[in-house]
Amino acid sequence: MKGYAGKWLRVNLSNGKISKEEIPEQVQRDYLGGRGFAVKLLWDEVRRVDPLSEGNKIVFSTGPLSGQLLPSAGKMVIASKSPLTGGYGDGNIGTMASVHLRRAGYDAVIVEGKASRPCYLFIEDENVRIIEAGDLWGKNTFDAQDLLEKQHGKNSGILLIGPAGEHRIRMATVISQKGRAGGRPGLGAVMGSKNLKALVIKGTGSVSNFDEAKLKELSKKGYDEIKAKESYDFWMKQGTMQAFEWCNENACLPTRNYQEGVFEFSKEMDGYVLDKLHVGRKGCPMCNMQCGHLIKDASGKEAELDYENVAMLGPNIGLRSLPQVALLNRLADEWGLDTISLGSAIGFLMEASEKGLLSEKIAWGDFDEAQRLVSEIGRGEGLGKLVSKGVKVAAEILGKGSHRWAMHVKGLEISAYNCHACPGMALSFATSPIGAHHKDAWVIAWEVSTDRFSYNKAKVEKLLEFQRIRGGFFESATVCRLPWVEVSFGLDWYPDYLEAITGERRSWEDLHKVGDRIYNLIRAYWKREIPEFGRSWDYPPERWFEEPHSHGKMKGVKVDREKYEQMLSWYYELRGWDERGIPKEETLRALGLEEVSKEIRG
Amino acid sequence: MAEIRFLGYLSALVGRRTEKVELTKPVPLRELLPASFPRENIIILVDEHPADLDTPIRPESSVALMPMLSGG
Predict the structure, then answer these.
(1) Tens of pLDDT, residues A383-394
(2) What is the CATH number of the domain that holds B19?
(3) Does the structure's ipTM exceed the value 0.90?
(4) B72 within domain boundaries
(5) What is the mean pLDDT of residues A298-324?
(6) Is B9's CB within 8 Å of A484's CB?
(7) H-helix segments, A365-481
(8) Structural domain tally of chain B?
């Protein structure tokens, strides 16, 4: 099909075998790309293996929009069986690797096996090699990026892991371009388990699209429309950090391990403060609304900030200084640690200390201790060892009721929205297909604008609508959702782009069916890999049900458990899943997944 | 006095983050905003309750106007 390379590259690190395989056109249509390709491959090829064993595989996957000269299209999905959750795990990343992979003539790379020694994968069009990386092993992601650029030139797409991934820390992520990150559910650890330090991709070809002239015209119009949006100038000043003030106003800013939703020092570190400290900008390829803001960190080096890392490494650990948060964020990127999980892990330790469950004293907002914990978590040593497998496992080890405030769903730490007073968003986190992440459905603004305290079916329908668009379409077309979600760039652009690229007109109804197929296959994957998987996995932490906010405008508010149960049942009903949360046979059949149904039913 | 708070890009549009308005009787919100103020994709809370541009603003009301963010 036009717009695709039509093949994926398979590299076996155990035996060095490299092969190029055709992607059936039916797979391109049914799964679109990105997350769709990834879950199809993992379902077919990775079953019942230890995620950190040689039997696991990691997929680097693009979609038809990826790498094209289109608004915010420099994206790629990285997916694997997650060592953090034990289920399906993925993350998207903005990187030149997406652009180069498409130009090199591949839609995806599948890495399997395990190298006997540290290595990196070099892809230059048809030339694919596994290269020794002994000199890179142990280097942080910034230094390793510099060394690889020196070796292969700056015009390369580089994906790599830091020491945390090498140590197989389960909150290790994949980094590109000194700050772009993707693969929250421990995908950096999967690379580390394969002795794979990096991928270096150089593509010199081009993607063959159906109507290049039309695509060029639509591209220019799209970029122009984004710049003309009335919210654009403000976006360029604050980016995602405008959510900081928004969340504090609406009492959903995670504060001191999600105990509260309002931070008393919020005005010292909001988007207006960021704007004053701003010294530069970073972002992904093909983007004209880059979201990474550079400031001078507490050590005087330039470091990047956005909302998630500020909220999780700021209020969530009681820290009130943007330069200090920026330093922690830079360290996390250098170590190759996911900043959301890191902030949650440090917050968990601080609360455990406050409650007297640890012999060590770690006060809220202790910047020196926080720095020490980053490296301890990155090495899996000291207190870092306790949380390096995630807060779920940490709570199992620590006991004493700590599971009630271990802030995760399915083992993945919750991103930066406190949901005591946002039951719809709590359900969004709980039904996210990779564990608690905001990327699939962010229903919180809609529920604040309507009735945040209600538990109605309309809220669940809205959640599903967002999952189909965000987690279904954007993750499989593999293009950034931010133009749509942040400056109201119209969704109608995307079928037009797809048509110019592939030559096929696809309706939203059709694209949503693709999204539903992907969601059901991910759900089936969890069920196959974890036989006991089911309804009990779709709940937020006890804290949101049991411990209301102690102050602020939402004082006394918490999630109502019985009403939450009703919303979860509505969600299953709308998805075509049974009361245990397992896709019904007829649901899978309607999506062409009959064989999947047989497998999960034994 | 009624207080109106503008969040996000809405503050840039009106040139301020907070406005105090002296009122002697309830007035529909739209009459307190510039004609060019966005009508769509915004969240309106009056005394913490969802509201719209026709909601009467009382002399002691607290109004928050914010963009319909979509959370990154």
Answers:
(1) 999 999 999 999
(2) 3.10.20.30
(3) yes
(4) no
(5) 97
(6) no
(7) 367-379, 383-387, 391-398, 423-431, 444-449, 457-467
(8) 1
